[in-house]
Amino acid sequence: MKVGIDMGATTGSAPALLDLEELLATRLLVQGNSGSGKSHLLRRLLEQSAPWVQQCIIDPEGDFTTLSEKFGHLVVDATRTEAELTRIAARVRQHRVSVVLNLEGLDVEQQMRAAAAFLGGMFDADRDYWYPVLVVVDEAQLFAPAAAGEVADEARKLSLAAMTNLMCRGRKRGLAGVIATQRLAKLAKNVAAEASNFLMGRTFLDIDMARAADLLGMEKRQAEQFRDLARGHFVALGPAISRRPLPITIGNVETAARSTSPKLTPLPDAPVDAAELIFTATAEEATRPVVRRPAPPPPPSTNELLAQLARQRPEVEGPPPTLFPEIDQAERDAIIDAIMAELLEDPDASFRTVAVLYQDFLVRCRIRRVPGEAPTLSSFKRKLAVARVAPDSETAGSDAWQQALTMSEALTDDVQGVFLVLAQAAVTAAPCPSDATLARLYGTHSASRARRLLTWFEERGLLVVRLDFRNNRVVAFPDLGCETTPGDPNGPDTMVDLRPAAE
């Protein structure tokens, strides 16, 4: 069923219709400086789509709580524990209730933790409750910052992982992300890049205009138009609304935000005796206790500092017992290897960035309750390259394969996987992979880039490429003393899993 959401009017006064089903599949990014009309746009979208789809609004300022009066949204006060918010989010998906998560009154770090817990509960809901939900996140740069700020690193990672899951993996679980931000430059790129629909409003900074023009496929000289956009005017692009940049004007809304834009108000008439009003306490103030902060203690003297240093330090207590069952290192490594295998089962994994795969890996580790510290990003890159090959036990124990692993450690992270796949084919006397297969492993669709990578390996003396009389390619490894069997370089990418089948 195709549902067109009326967002307002285009330049020619024609209605600007937003395909709701397409929006649920392709997500939306809204950008504009403060006062450009982002919240008005989101309110229009929510009001028009309320009869058709379940909604969840992450509201840092409490502006959208007024939707409950006319459209029946349930307001969830975020002043709860993270466990409570996670359980509430699961019940929201189960009973298909539209909600507003009110984060008003919390500091930034508490808002990030509360939003991460709530989004995590919706993301981890049972498969039976994966109904479509429009998830609107206002001020998304707070929850998916491009760089570390003054908040704790743990809170930032939790919030960024939740936003990444929403925009990258939420579609298959019925979650359609709609994110709004004042500054594109402050929003994490891997979160913004997953949106296919864009509504760009007024902005003044060159870096934000350049990113907006780049997302809309416009030339840099055309980016100047974003400075001239009036309040409530946006440039739209995306499969859900227009295949070409389209100026639109957002229509009126039925509800109003609790906060309003500043308006000039005439000053009151000057009182007869202003000094008496200001310096004389009222009866209520006279009865109110005066709370004074105690004076800070004086700094310790040099003798006191030396005495403290001379005291014997107490013994450091051991780490507190973990809540999870203890397992040995071998079992932990086996669980991590299984998670890596699950991660690579996705056919799109080869074309995702390492950062996105790493965030997905961390989430899966938390779901599987892997104890201890998660592998670092550099360690993950190495595991990713090896996991894409994962030879059988006989091959893995051979001297040639161990030497190939040692040779790959001197290569950069992005080419280790391709080198190991070629080395495995040589050690097992398998046909040489095609250009399409090598390109997929390299994370590209270009066969010419795969061929240039083979030339790069050959120039460094790692391998030798030759063609037989049928123009099939053979890759030989002089240091390993083995070579692949002939393979068609122009063959298709068979998407054959290079790992051995499970017993």
TrEMBL record:
Superkingdom of the organism of origin: Bacteria
InterPro entries: AAA+_ATPase, ATPase_Atu1862_pred, HerA-like, HerA_central, P-loop_NTPase
Entry keyword annotation includes Cell wall biogenesis/degradation: no
Pfam families (alphabetical): DUF87 (PF01935)
Coiled-coil features, chain-numbered ranges: none
Domain AAA+ ATPase: 24-301
Alphabetical keyword list: ATP-binding, Nucleotide-binding
Gene3D superfamilies in the record: P-loop containing nucleotide triphosphate hydrolases
GO molecular function: ATP binding
Full protein name: ATP-binding protein
